[in-house]
């Protein structure tokens, strides 16, 4: 080996120098990503609104699945006496190696009866029950495999036929606003012209502010986000409440097969942004804000429920201690 070759072999390479300055915690996001993908994700979505507004069709369109194969449709006479029920459908979806356990909570019978007084009570009871179950599991001995059945989002369908919010709409959203993320939707938007949709949206926004209804608020963008994401976020905020159309039918438009509805006057395309807000709703619900919906459920709505439970338990414990002290005092006086 020559002197020059020995010198070259002892000269540290730039890769070695970089390796010495590299600790390795920059790979933590990759580790979290691998662990999360392996574990899978879960999301619980509630749909509420009176029958015939396309709730099931929209859910099937959003997740490209059929969750209501065996559904029984009631006639008008049966709906009059029907009470609000809670039905749950769970399906496992996989896309590009990412697994999602999707739970759809439906509320058949809501708003269909002649007397709709407190028809939202079974819905609030169900949400509270899921919080209570999670609190019980979280406080138990085995906390390793806790199932999260808490409702992360509620899509509330508003009929397109009226001129704003009905009393039942106001009471329902106010009853749920502190328990779940409420996202109002204008159903069957193909019943309205673009100008009518614009006016109805403005009216609904005014009434939501007027009655102090707290719906899901989009978080502000970080300053380091790119302009494309900021523009998308602005468009989502300006589009609320989303005017949506659902369809499981594939039709041909402009030489392409698309999901839509065929009418004598033309075709309404579900995924055409100029026809409805379906793409914006899907973007918000699945692609950009699903994790934020889960975070608010856990950090805000569930924490409020948990704090209330702990306060109630603390008060009960104090009362028991006071009663015990009183009994001990009475026994001591008797002995004397």
From TrEMBL:
Gene3D superfamilies with a match to the protein in the record: P-loop containing nucleotide triphosphate hydrolases
Keyword Nucleotide-binding: yes
Compartments, as annotated in UniProt: Cytoplasm
Entry-linked PANTHER family: SEPTIN
Lineage of origin: Eukaryota, Metazoa, Chordata, Craniata, Vertebrata
Domain Septin-type G per the UniProt entry, residue ranges: 39-312
Keywords: Cell cycle, Cell division, Cytoplasm, GTP-binding, Nucleotide-binding
Site (Important for dimerization): 161
Protein origin, superkingdom: Eukaryota
GO terms, molecular function: GTP binding
Family label: Belongs to the TRAFAC class TrmE-Era-EngA-EngB-Septin-like GTPase superfamily. Septin GTPase family.
GO cellular component: cytoplasm
One example of a Gene Ontology biological process annotation: cell division
Protein name in the entry: Septin-type G domain-containing protein
């Amino acid at each position: 080996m020559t002197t020059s070759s020995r010198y070259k072999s002892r000269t540290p390479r730039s890769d070695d120098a970089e390796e010495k300055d590299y600790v390795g915690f920059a790979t933590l996001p990759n580790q979290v990503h691998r662990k999360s993908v392996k574990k899978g994700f879960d999301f619980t979505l509630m749909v509420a609104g009176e029958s015939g507004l396309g709730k099931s069709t929209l859910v099937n369109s959003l997740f490209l699945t059929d969750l209501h194969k065996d559904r029984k449709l009631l006639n008008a006479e049966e709906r009059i006496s029907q009470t609000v029920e809670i039905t749950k459908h769970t399906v496992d979806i996989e896309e590009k190696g990412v697994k999602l356990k999707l739970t759809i909570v439906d509320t058949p019978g809501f708003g269909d009866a002649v007397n709709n007084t407190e028809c939202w009570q079974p819905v609030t009871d169900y949400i509270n029950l899921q919080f209570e179950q999670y609190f019980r599991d979280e406080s138990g001995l085995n906390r390793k495999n806790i199932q999260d059945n808490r409702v992360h989002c509620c899509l509330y369908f508003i009929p397109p036929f009226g001129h704003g919010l009905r009393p039942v709409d106001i009471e329902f959203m106010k009853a749920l606003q502190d328990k779940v993320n409420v996202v109002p939707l204008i159903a069957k938007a193909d019943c309205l012209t673009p100008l009518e949709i614009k006016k109805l949206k403005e009216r609904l926004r005014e009434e939501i502010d007027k009655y102090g209804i707290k719906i899901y608020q989009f978080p502000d963008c970080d300053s380091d986000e790119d302009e494309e994401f900021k523009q998308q976020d602005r468009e989502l905020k300006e589009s609320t409440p989303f005017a949506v159309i659902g369809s499981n039918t594939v039709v041909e438009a402009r030489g392409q097969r698309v999901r839509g509805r065929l009418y004598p006057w033309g075709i309404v395309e579900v995924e055409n942004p100029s026809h409805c807000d379906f793409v914006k709703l899907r973007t918000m619900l699945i692609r950009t804000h699903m994790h934020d919906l889960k975070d608010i459920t856990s950090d805000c709505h569930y924490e409020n429920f948990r704090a209330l439970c702990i306060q109630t338990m603390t008060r009960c414990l104090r009362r028991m201690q006071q009663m015990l002290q009183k009994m001990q005092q009475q026994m001591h006086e008797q002995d004397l």
